[in-house]
Fold this sequence. Notes:
This protein is an all-alpha fold. The chain has a single domain, classed as Farnesyl Diphosphate Synthase (Orthogonal Bundle), CATH 1.10.600. It has 15 helices and no strands. It has helices spanning 8-21, 24-42, 48-72, 74-77, 87-90, 95-116, 119-140, 147-151, 157-167, 172-195, 197-202, 208-211, 214-238, 243-266, 269-298. Helix 2 packs antiparallel against helix 3, helix 7 packs antiparallel against helix 9 and helix 10 packs antiparallel against helix 15 (269-298). It is globular, with a radius of gyration of 20 Å.
Amino acid sequence: MGLAQLPARSRAHTARAYIALTKPRIIELLLVTTVPTMVVADRGIPPVWLMAATVIGGTLAAGGANAINMYVDRDIDRLMERTKSRPLVTGEIAPPRALVFAIVLEAAAFAWLWGFVNLLSAVLAVSATAFYVFVYTLWLKRTSTRNIIIGGAAGAVPVLVGWSAVTNSLAWAPVVLFGVIFYWTPPHFWALAIRYRDDYRAANVPMLPAVASTRTTAMRMVGYTVVLWGLSLLFSAVGGMGLVYLVSAAVLGAVFLFYAVQVLRTQATASAMRLFSYSITYITLLFAAMAVDQVVRTGA
């Protein structure tokens, strides 16, 4: 039975299940980094139509990647408390339908970005999906403690997409921003994984907190946070940012490091979750500061 043939309530339920396949909360975080990057690249507010087109294309690409991830991981998702209610585990969506849905999203993302933004942005967005699926999901996630370190590079690509959408090129500034997201990802994700380490053990996924001590994990989190802080400050010079951004990066990074050190000091799950919550606030405020800095400086 097709979606159009279902009763209205069933259609709404099924639609929500398909939306859940795309992991909307993760997409929100990716887009938080895309639009401010476009503002910096434009040295002001880019055309609204361009921002909208880039956001739509990025949403389609990220949604497709996340849906493929759920398709591949449906066997281990049923073993983990955090993921056992996902649509492919509960049977709300059949796996073949989910895979077709994901492929359609990726094709639509490429066509949309190529048609309304530019070819470079389209290639970058779909390349990120390929990396996320083949390198992270199919290879590293189940085989290496470096899974989220290397695989997290896919989540850093939206800043490249945002920059290229405006300039149709790349430069050192977006590369540094790529590094910011790349080094932000491990402490952000490991903080959550500390809480759910038993889930990863049950699924035999070698996420670092599941196979190493909290102290070892926390020490690496501190190390990545220090590099993250340094890269965020470096971007001030490379990206030609002003005082608003520089002060914001310094303060936000100091607080991030404080929370990371607290995890190392206490080795407590509560401390890890405080870091996880702050890490989302951190990336949101850091990129908001970039946009505000440029708008204030240019008077756009």
